Amino acid sequence: MKKLILAAILIFGYMLSGCQDVLDTKPGNTYSEVDIYSNIDLTKRLVYYSYGATDTWGVNLSQWWTRIINLECASDEAFFHFKQVRYKIFPETNGALTPSNLGLAFKNSWKTYYSYIRSCDEFLDKIDDASVMNTDKDMALRLKGEAQFLRAFCYTKLVRYYGGVPIIEKPFTLSDTLNIPRNSYEECIDFIVTQLDEAAAVLPEYCSGDEFGRVDQRAALALKARVLLYAASKLHDPSTVPNGPLYDYSKSSKWQDASDAAKAVIDLPSNAEGLIQVADYKEYKELFLAPNKNILFARPFNQDYATFSQDIYTLPDQAQSPIGFSGWGVSNPTQNFVDLFKMNNGKSITDPTSGYDPSAENIYKNRDMRFYADILYNGAEFRDRKIEFFRYGRDSKDIGDMAKHYCITGYNMRKFIDESIDFSTSMSPKRPYIMSRLAEIYLDYAEAEYHLGHEDIARQYVSKVAERAHQPAITTSGEELLEDIKNERAIELCYEGHRYFDLRRWMDTNHLGGDIRGIEWAYYKEDGSIAGIDPSTGEIEAGSTLKYTSIPKIENRPWKTAYYYLPIPQGEITKANKLVQNYDY
Fold first, then answer.
1. N or C terminus: fewer CB in 10 A for the chain?
2. Number of other CB atoms surrounding residue 58 within 10 Å
3. CA 337/CA 319 separation, integer angstroms
4. What is 393-436 written as a DSSP string?
């Protein structure tokens, strides 16, 4: 069984990498463990296979739909417009999440992560005694660090979704029934942190150039900072519900540990230059389209270190562009989230002194620079023309066969879209799928320092992020400062897979359920009817006026206390009677 598994992994790895020279020495199904652990190139392939754990969010990778959207559609950031599969992907958004119905997104997450954990366990069980440890020790130790990181990455995902899970450090076969109890949440965090510390000790500090996308010390320490911040958060306080060993983190040093972990990343020599400064929203947008020093860990959309996604149709360009550009626009930003973007003077649009003008002519003027980089709205300049979300416009629901892909909320995503390419034929070279950035670490540090009572440091680091986006420095204190940190985190990290977890760890029920809102645009004639458009010229009927109508409820999302965690799949509970199901499922 082990030989077959190893052979399959190696064949898969070489198919992706194009490294044929070693495979030419033997048929692909005859490699033994001796072969693999005595040839450093084969040993690399074994580790590179496990990089698949970082593919999207490591969920049901066989389901195509889960490769073109992320967790934004399960939070208040976005609404998934394609109704045929909307609730099949995220059943919690209509209150249907159960142990037998996790949806396409999470259906296979438990077994997917444990499959990669098994691969890492197999490698880590053998590498210390392998002959490559004698012939190429530095590379072997580096590969060991990568495997420890990838195993810790899998456990990090598991504990965020499920709370405490079984910790398995020894290899198991695909046919094993893992009938073992769950470890406590605190035991899991301790294990993850230990693995990341050990990995960081043997990894190079910074991988760039041809090695961009490979795990380095920055990636390991950044993941540690995130893990400790999450553990310190309200969700894991013993006084909250759900509580008990599977969910609680009660260390008295928790906020100091989170602060120290974030500061360790900030103090790395490769991060000494701080945040890359930008002149405008266009330069800010470019930070997400190519490798740069502020990206601490990412996977390129190409063949390096196993595949990420080489299907041009699963890149953000096709998946998120408006229908008038032959896009599908699948993740529609909500009005709820759009309203979180402040004015360019740093004031909320709800502040009567902010200068916010809700008129149709001015509703999107003078907003935070990141609004223009992240959101496509009616009238926005995109690919050399203005977006036409208004009725009968080129990006509206009235344009024909693509109408099923129109933006129900009145917005499309702009972040991550490369407007310089023809997405029907081209891919951006080394486009990163970003999993951690320096800006996140600044915000981690600000939040931890706030809870330690060091508001001056918290203001300093949250302001670094805000000011890079040409917002004024944060000057608030107390609860208002904490809200500013949370808002800055929402805007800076939007659509990167953070808010789904942030709202849960903060136990922010004001944003976890409720009505999803939108906006609809149209030109109206004097009699109140909707004006038509000449299809040959694009001219709107004379005398009509552009207006918008607020949509107060596109859908209502129920919220249950149980939804702070996913249920363990019923099939796993049935197979292993020592597994305890999560709270209230």
1. N
2. 20
3. 20
4. STTSTTSSGGGGGS-TTS-EE-TT--TTS-TTT---TT-EEEEE
- Residue whose tokens read 């979180």: 340
Helix/strand/coil (H/E/C) assignment for every residue in 109-170: HHHHHHHHHHHHHHHHHHHCCCCHHHHCHHHHHHHHHHHHHHHHHHHHHHHHHHCCCCCCCC
Going by C-alpha positions, the residue among 335, 324, 426, 338 that lies closest to residue 374 is 338
Of 300, 298, 547, 318, the closest CA to residue 412 belongs to 318
- Total H helices, total E strands in the chain: 21, 10
What is the DSSP pairing of strand 295-300 with strand 545-557?
unpaired
Looking at residue 190, its amino acid is D
Question: 19 φ, ψ to 5°?
Answer: -80, 90
- Say how many C-beta atoms besides its own lie within 10 A of residue 446's C-beta: 29
Distant-in-sequence, close-in-space partners of 375: CB < 8 Å, separation ≥ 6 = 333, 338, 341, 411, 412, 413, 414
The Cα–Cα gap between 121 and 496 comes to 29
> Rounded to an integer, what is the distance from CA 419 to the centroid of its chain?
21
Distances (CA, A) of 396 to 324, 437, 524, 554: 8, 35, 15, 17
Residue 71 tokens read as 């967790």
How many angstroms separate the CA atoms of 22 and 6, rounded? Answer: 15
* Residue 343 exposed, middle or buried by CB count within 10 Å (0-12, 13-18, 19+): buried
Q: Considering the chain, what percentage of its residues have pLDDT values greater than 90?
A: 79
Task: Convert the pLDDT of each residue in 22-64 to its tens digit.
Answer: 333 444 456 788 999 999 999 999 999 999 898 754 444 444 4
Q: Are strands 381-382 and 331-333 parallel, antiparallel or unpaired?
A: unpaired
C-alpha angle 384-386-387 in degrees, rounded to nearest 5: 120
Q: What is the per-residue pLDDT for 312?
A: 58
CA-based R_g, the chain, Å: 25
**Count of C-beta atoms within a 10 Å radius of residue 334:** 27
Distance CA 258, CA 231 (A): 9
Q: What is the pLDDT of residues 363-413, one digit of tens each?
A: 999 999 999 999 999 999 999 999 999 999 999 999 877 777 899 999 999
Q: Which two tokens stand for residue 224?
A: 């540690």
